[in-house]
Amino acid sequence: DQHRLKRPSGPLLDTMRSTVIRHGTSSTAQSSGSMPLVYIKSCPPQNSSVRIFDEVKSAQYLACLHNLSSNGVSFAGQVVLFTGAGMGSIAIEMVKMLLEGGAIVISAINYAKSEESIQNTLSFYRRIYEEHGSKGSRLITQPCNAGSVQYVLALVEHIYTSLLLDIDFIV
Q1: Residue 95 in contact with residue 102, Cβ under 8 Å?
Q2: Is the pTM of this model over 0.90?
Q3: I want to staple 25 with a disulfide (CB 3.0 to 4.6 A). Which of 7, 63, 116, 122 is the partner?
Q4: How far apart are CA 129 and CA 16, in angstroms?
């Protein structure tokens, strides 16, 4: 089957795959007597303040994860602009997954004033790309103060006119 695309891989996708493989695509709560590692809780109709294990939704969720991990997920050709993906941000995890899926990620960085801080920020992003970049992915850092309309407009103009990219998502 030489025409089948190579399944995307990377540390985050591999972790997701191992979770799904360990627990299968159906709920394991009744069959094994244990709770799956990843599961969904829902409110019962009689009490909206309580959350209980939802076997059906959990099975559907695990089936979706299994499908993603088996068939792969691709963000190839997608352009994503991040305005708040700095060091320590939860958005960095999204950046990693998008890079593993082949996306072009543009991170608007509010550079600090010192040269050392700038170098630390660029080194951080370089390591992210080295560890999570995949075929077709790109990680572009652009200085921008996202709190300023003028800076944001200049960034968008730069993306469309200089980089010749069309933004698909803004996070």
Answers
A1: no
A2: no
A3: 63
A4: 20
